[in-house]
Design brief:
Elements lengths: L2 E2 L66 E3 L6 E4 L16 E2 L14 E6 L4 E5 L5 E4 L4 E5 L6 E5 L3 E6 L5 E6 L11 E3 L12 E7 L5 E8 L4 E7 L6 E6 L5 E6 L16 E5 L6 E4 L2 E8 L5 E7 L4 E6 L5 E6 L9 E5 L8 E7 L12 E6 L6 E6 L19 E2 L5 E6 L10 E6 L10
Length: 450
């Protein structure tokens, strides 16, 4: 590897401070605000109410937009919520963005030790926050497809067209990790990346990547081994349409590629890939495991098996797919009979708490029609598993309003499932005025769920 030093912002960053969120005991029906004290945000010192695990319909309760860095209890589900960003004050002077959000449900916003948070403005400027005080630490340099390292708290990996790069937030240095260009000498390849949604294995070692030509069509899949600094597998592909994204499974056992949907009654194959294609790490043994994939994320179940946690668009279920044997387990049915612009996202990147995933569900109707509507909840990844409902997200998403894509909650979880980030416009549909909110959970919360 060669080192490239650039003029950047050297950030002196605080270590993670302890945050109190009380024991799971007495209920609290109304929000109670906890103001920052001595620069540190106090996360709900009132006792954690019992976790809401029933599936009955609960109407959203109107709550005034909270002030930044002031924690409160959710009025319906009792979760400890705090607004992280201040859309009016946090952006740089040259950033005219109307809002700041966590980037996406499948992407990790917290660094390896949980001390820092990376958020994105709607103008694609990225900012660093202290995870304890929630204060902005500084602006990050422009980076394409950035990913926190899962093991080094100071490293952010990113894509430089045909290179994998790394940025050190402590020193401000950029370094070349790997140059993929020599492997494509004489070929029309302009980008090697995950295409926005993919992640490496949970130890950073194995990276699923796709090569695209000047027409942004996929020409090859790659598996890059960070430890050995070499491409360990390559497969030429020529799909008839776009490949939406590629990602590595948490333990690095499988390469997942999401193609355009297969026609009814068909599944993908090596000769005609479509839907969800899964390959072994060496890019052999290709098999189509799903005809049509909704939103999804890779996960570990309670037994440590690598699975896909996803919306099954053929059966309208929240479901789990075993990546080894293709077994599908339906968890909960989804009622789309009333649906008007509704949608859901999945986050299961909390690999330190296997067996659980996170869902955020939204629609354009402020009236709650079914139990999933308008809030953020955890799902146990097994048949008959528990559901834990944390908080309303207050995002009003109208499919006719282009800006409302940015208001989709895109809830994402940290590595040990004690912090959840989500985006909300707090009912201001069409405005683009969004902020990032955080749900704070006590350590060991899953053991308290009945």
């Amino acid at each position: 590897m060669r080192l490239v030093t650039c003029v950047g912002i050297a950030l002196v960053l605080a270590a993670l401070l302890p945050a109190a969120c009380g024991d799971a005991r007495a209920p609290s029906d109304r929000p109670t605000n906890d103001e920052p004290v001595g620069g540190e945000t106090v996360f709900c010192t009132d006792p954690q109410p019992p976790f809401v695990t029933d599936l009955r319909v609960r109407q959203e309760q109107p709550v005034a937009e909270p002030a930044p860095r002031a924690a409160f209890r959710d009025a319906v589900y009792g979760g400890c919520v705090v607004r992280v960003s201040d859309r009016a004050a946090d952006p740089d002077p040259d950033d005219a963005s109307a809002g700041i959000k966590n980037e996406y449900s499948r992407l990790q916003s917290f660094n390896a030790d949980g001390a820092r948070i990376m958020l994105m403005s709607l103008g694609a400027h990225r900012y660093l926050y202290d995870a304890a005080t929630l204060q902005r630490l500084g602006a990050l340099p422009a980076m394409n497809d950035p990913r926190w390292s899962n093991v080094d708290p100071n490293t952010i990996y990113y894509i430089g067209e045909l290179t994998l790069m790394a940025f050190d937030v402590a020193t401000g240095e950029h370094r070349l990790v790997h140059d993929f260009a020599p492997g494509f000498a004489g070929e029309d390849v302009v980008m090697v990346w995950t295409r926005w949604e993919g992640n490496p294995s949970a130890d950073d070692r194995y990276w699923a990547l796709m090569a695209e030509d000047a027409d942004w069509m996929t020409t090859a899949f790659l598996v890059y081994d960070l430890l050995e600094d070499r491409v360990v597998a390559r497969r030429t592909v020529s799909p008839p349409g776009d490949v939406d994204n590629v990602t590595m499974s948490p333990l690095g056992g499988y390469f997942l590629a999401q193609f355009e949907y297969c026609e009814h009654g068909t599944m993908g194959s090596a000769a005609a890939p479509c839907g969800l294609m899964v390959y072994d790490r060496d890019l052999g043994n290709p098999r189509g495991l799903l005809r049509n994939v909704g939103h999804a994320d890779v996960a570990l179940d309670a037994d440590g098996r690598e699975v896909l946690f996803y919306q099954d668009q053929d059966t309208d279920h929240v479901a789990v797919l075993d990546l080894q044997d293709g077994t599908i387990t339906n968890l909960h049915p989804i009622d789309f009979s009333y649906c008007d612009g509704c949608g859901m996202h999945f986050s299961s990147i909390a690999h330190a708490l296997p067996g659980w995933g996170l869902v955020s569900y939204f629609d354009a109707d402020p009236i709650t029609r079914m139990w999933m509507d308008d809030h953020v909840f955890a799902v146990e990844l097994k048949a008959g598993g528990r559901v834990v409902r944390f908080a309303q997200h207050h995002a009003l998403v109208d499919p006719e309003q282009e800006h409302d894509y940015w208001a989709e909650p895109h809830a994402s979880v940290n590595r040990d499932f004690t912090r959840i980030l989500f985006t909300s416009n707090w009912g201001r549909s069409g405005s683009g005025e969004v902020d990032t909110y955080m749900i704070v959970l006590p350590d060991g919360w899953a053991g308290e769920v009945p």
